[in-house]
Design a protein that fits this description.
The protein has helices at 8-14, 18-24, 31-52, 59-78, 82-85, 89-97. It has 110 residues and is mostly helical. The radius of gyration is 19 Å and the shape is elongated. The N and C termini lie far apart (72 Å).
């Protein structure tokens, strides 16, 4: 069965890479941007969808819904970068621990 024969729900279950999602929904993209940020794009996409609640029940509005949020997730990383966007918890936590006060540094004992 080809992608064309699949329902939207079936296709969503089969898609796994950022490139597959972008191709399926017809979102134009720069391969280099996706290569560097693929997991961040997919996580941001998931976060956007989760925040919106359920997609529309009808297929055409659902396609528009998924395309809109995938496009936005991709554009977030065209206009910014993973360190700035901090999609993953590990990067969010790192934001609070990357500063070392000067007072905490000591000179080595000779």
């Amino acid at each position: 069965m080809s992608d064309v024969d699949l329902t939207l729900e079936e296709a969503l279950e089969d898609l796994s890479s950022a490139e597959e999602f972008l191709d399926y929904f017809g979102v134009e993209y720069d391969a280099k941007t996706v290569h560097v940020n693929r997991l961040h794009i997919l996580q941001r996409y998931h976060n956007y969808i989760k925040a919106q609640g359920p997609a529309p029940a009808d297929e055409a509005p659902a396609r528009e819904f998924y395309t809109k949020w995938l496009t936005q997730a991709y554009l977030d990383f065209v206009q910014s970068d993973a360190l700035t966007e901090r999609v993953f918890v590990v990067l969010q936590k790192a934001a609070g621990t990357s500063f070392v006060p000067l007072e905490s540094l000591t000179s080595p004992k000779v």
